[in-house]
Amino acid sequence: MQKTLKSLQKLLLNNSKNSLFTHKQIQNFYEAQQKFQLSEQKLQDFKNKGIAVLPEILDPQQLDEVINYTKQMIKKSDGFQKQKVIFSSGNSERGQAFIQTGDKIHYFFENLQTFTEEQEKTDALDFENKIALNKIAHAQHDLDPFFEQFSYQQVFKNILQKIGYKNPRCVQSMYIFKNPKIGGEVGPHTDNTFLTTTPLSCMGIWIALHDATIENGCLYALEGSHKKATNYFMVRTEDQQEVTFIGEEPKNLDLSKGTPLQVKRGSIVLIDGNAVHYSYHNASKKPRHAFTLHFVEGEDQGYKWSEKNWMQRGKHLPFRNYYEIVDQVQKKGWQNYIQK
Fold this sequence. Notes:
By secondary structure, this protein is an alpha+beta fold. It has helices at 2-15, 23-34, 40-49, 60-76, 96-99, 117-120, 140-143, 145-151, 154-163, 322-329, and strands at residues 51-54, 85-86, 105-109, 133-138, 169-176, 186-189, 197-198, 203-208, 219-221, 232-236, 243-247, 259-261, 268-272, 277-279, 290-296, 304-305.
C-alpha cells in the first residue's frame, strides 16, 4: 500500500504544473489513500514512543487545495482583524476573546513584539492582506464545508480505528501557518493539558502541508514522555471570563533529547495526548504550514468531557460522532477531489 501511494504521488507531482489531473489519476490515488491502514510497526511506534510518523500519505493536489482555499478564505473574510487574539503557548492572552473561539472559525495572530523591526516588516503570508497570522481555529472542521470534507476522511478513520478509538469526537481543528521569519515557537506541552476528558483520551493528527525541517520550525517530540500521564490542565476560571492552569507543571524537561520530526509534505504525525512536543521559531525564508485535528473518545465509551475545559461548545454545535460523519461526508468518494 505504501509503495502504491508513493508511486501515485510521484505521478501527481510530475503533472502538478500541467492541466488538471485525469479522473482516473485522482480516482486511483483517492482509493489507495482511503484504503490506507496503519501498519503494525507504526502502531507499535505510537504505543512505545507516543509518536508515529507516516510518510507522504496525503496527495499533493489535496494539500494545494487546502492552502489555496485558505488564501481565498482570508481574502474574503470581513473584519476579522477587529478583535485580534494573539496566540501564546503560555497563559497570557487567554481571556474572553480566546475562550469564545471553541465553536467558531477564528483568526489568531503572531506576537510581533517578540521580533525585530526588520522581521515585523516581513510580508510573511504573501497574501493581499499582508498580516501575520499564527493560525485559524478551532471549529472549521464542523462549520466550513471544505474543511469538513478534508477533516472527515476515511484515512483518518482507519488510523483511529487501528489505534483503538471506538466512537471518537473531533473536538478541534487548526490551520497553523508558521510563516517565514515570524512563525513563533510553541513551547513544550501535551495535548491533554488543553483538551481533557476523564479518563484522558486526547490524540492529535498533524498534517504537513509543506516540507517540515529543522530550519523552518519542524515539530520536536520527547519520545516516551507519554508514559507519564498529564497532570497539568488549562481550565476556565470560576467566573468563566479567563483561563488558568492547575496541577503540576512539567519541569526539568531535557529538550536536548527531543527528536526533530522532519517530514515531507503530505506526511501525517500521530501524537499521543500525553506526549510532550514543541517547535522552534521559523527563522527561514520557507513556510511550514500544517493542519491539525484533535480527537477524544466519546462519552458513550465512558469518557467524560471536562466541564472545566476552556473549550465548551454550545448546544447549537455539539461534538459529532466522527465515524458517522466520515461515512456521510465521503459518500461522493474521489469525485470530491476533482476541480470544477
